[in-house]
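Preliminary data (for renewal application), iron/sulfur cluster complex.
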Amino acid sequence: MKQQPLSLLEKLYVTEVAKGLALTTRHFFSNFSRHLMRSVGFKVDKGETVTIQYPEERRPYARRLRTRHRLTKRADGTPRCVACMMCETVCPARCIHIIAGEHPDPNIEKAPRVFDIDMGVCVFCGFCVEACPEDAIRMDTGIVELASYTREGMIYHMDQLLQ
Ligand code: SF4
Ligand code: SF4
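Predicted structure:
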């Protein structure tokens, strides 16, 4: 799409800033007056603005919401993952890093020695869960707070993913 050139008034920016402020002020007063009228018993048919006092108050999440990953375990507590690399291969963000090792049980070919997911890069598409043939990875922890002060802090290792 061709970009429209700015008019002289737009180039001055002052009018655009004033317009933005006017819009915000209008919303503030209209919401404030609606809340005020409701608080004294008047019914206002317009939809209300809702403020959630996060994190004390939270909206219920949808059951299908994809949240932080977890690795599922066998009955003996070891990861179900067989290090087949399907999830690592399918991941569009290339944020899964697995190093395979031998499993002590001769009936199981491999197990992950390293299983890292970089949550700072993950796009929460769920492809890894879909691709897994062992139901070894799920995104049903309900954990959505994944902030960290460092990039390294966003990398979740196997011990964290197994918790
Ligand atoms: S949810 Fe998507 S982006 Fe995130 S680790 Fe799984 S496949 Fe990769
Ligand atoms: S697809 Fe499943 S079994 Fe294969 S490496 Fe990923 S988590 Fe492990």
